Amino acid sequence: MKYSMAILLCLLNHMVLATDASTPFYLGADLSYVNEMEDCGAKYYDNSKRQDPFILFANKGANLIRVRLWHNPDWTRYSNLADATKTLQRAKASGMKTLLDFHYSDTWTDPEKQFIPKAWAHISDTGELAQTLYDYTTQTLATLDEHNALPDLVQVGNETNIEILQHEDKLVKGIPDWSRNATLLNSGIKAVRDYSKKSNKPIQIVLHIAQPENALWWFKQATENGVLDYDIIGLSYYPQWSTYQLPQLPNAIKTLKQNYQKDVLIVETAYPYTLNNFDKAANVLGKTAIQRNFPATPKGQASYLLTLRNLVKTSGGLGVVYWEPAWVSTKCKTLWGTGSHWENATFFDAGNGNKALPAFLFFSNKNDN
User: Which segments in the chain show pLDDT lower than 50?
Assistant: First the structure.
């Protein structure tokens, strides 16, 4: 009898970990820059024909579009609620599911900085700040819903390795104050859950950490501090900034799934197809980004993506989302220069009129190993 019970428990555990057959394997792209790039004159081509980028990605097989949202970015008119709404609408109109990425900041957030929106900077009480976060998240989802742009998935924070909603002059990069951090994260999570229930529209919740090695300790601490009600572990995976090389990634995915009974989705990755720079903006991905067996060529980029995709899929991951494959070079400015800091890592050849690259094979099921 004890052996039968052991077998039953094993089968039940396998059933919990297995991805539901109806759940798609996500092959996605973050297209948050597209509206701005088009306003700056960018054009995208496939087989010498100009294409709407959302329709192009959908036709190539993409099934998820990720969209970032800043609170009140007074330094740009993009990635605010109006712009994010437009992006979500375009993605949905093209037949793809959507993932909304709340940065909870007026600017970029990442493992080095999580700056509180200026409008909330005067709030020192954690309970009051948590309520403000809840109200903002709820109102944002309601507004999106009114415009037929409600996302299918929501990230409560972006690369939240460190504590969220920090003041710039008091930034702490170490282990979060979990009493405060858990209260804030759970408030955002509850807002999404409550709105999903109220609207009777399913929304999956993603918590996002940069690099798999950091996710292992972060989710352990989050669990110990009561951050439990989410659906998906989201990871940024950039080999040059990770201690995990490609062959090690499957073990991290399996460990996270086993330990926390959550799906694992790579929500950011990228790889260069060239080391050339086509404008005055310094590129983020240079020589240090190049991995063994994957040269910085169109074929090398595609090979990296197909390898990553298949490793994630065979290890039980939920999918892979490529970060900003349409952030091409234009005459517009960023905070750091004129042009794009990413044109050598897009899916469009900057040296050949932004023609589609072999990287689009990433979205094709025909290339499964």
Answer: 1-20, 369
- Please enumerate in sequence order all residues whose Cβ is within 8 A of that of 326, keeping only pairs 6 or more positions apart, or say none: 29, 31, 33, 34, 37, 42, 44, 53, 346, 347, 348
How far is 63 from 287, CA to CA, in rounded Å? 31
pLDDT reported for residue 366: 61
In the residue annotation, 112 being an active-site residue is answered as: no
- Helix, strand, coil percentages in the chain from 3-state DSSP, rounded to 5: 40, 15, 40
pLDDT confidence of residue 182: 99
From the candidates 36, 163, 268, 324, which is the catalytic residue?
A: 268
Give me the pLDDT at residue 368, please.
Answer: 53
Instruction: Catalytic residue, from 36, 159, 163, 343: name it.
Output: 159
Q: Rounded CA gap, 343 and 283, in Å?
A: 8
Residues 6 or more apart from 337 whose CB is under 8 A from it?
279, 280, 281, 282
Beta-sheet strand order (sheet of 355-356)? 49-51, 44-46, 355-356, 348-349
The pLDDT of residue 10: 41
Active site residue 268: yes
Name residue 338's beta-bridge partners: 333
Helix/strand/coil (H/E/C) assignment for every residue in 260-302: HCCEEEEEECCCCCCCCCCCCCCCCCCHHHCECCECCCHHHHH
Q: Which CATH class is domain 63-267?
A: alpha beta
Angle between helices 298-314 and 249-260 (to 10 degrees): 30
Return the beta strands (E) in 103-181 as ranges.
153-156
Pairing of β 355-356 and β 348-349: antiparallel
Q: How far apart are CA 150 and CA 193, in angstroms?
A: 13
CA 285/CA 312 separation, integer angstroms: 22
CA 21 to chain centre: 23
pLDDT for 269-281, tens place per residue? 999 999 999 999 9
Considering only CA atoms, which of 252, 203, 256 is closest in space to residue 230? 203
* Extents of the domains making up the chain: 33-62+269-300+326-369, 63-267
Please report, in angstroms and rounded to a whole number, the separation of the first and last CA atoms in the chain.
41
Rounded to whole angstroms, the Cα distance separating 270 from 290 reads 11
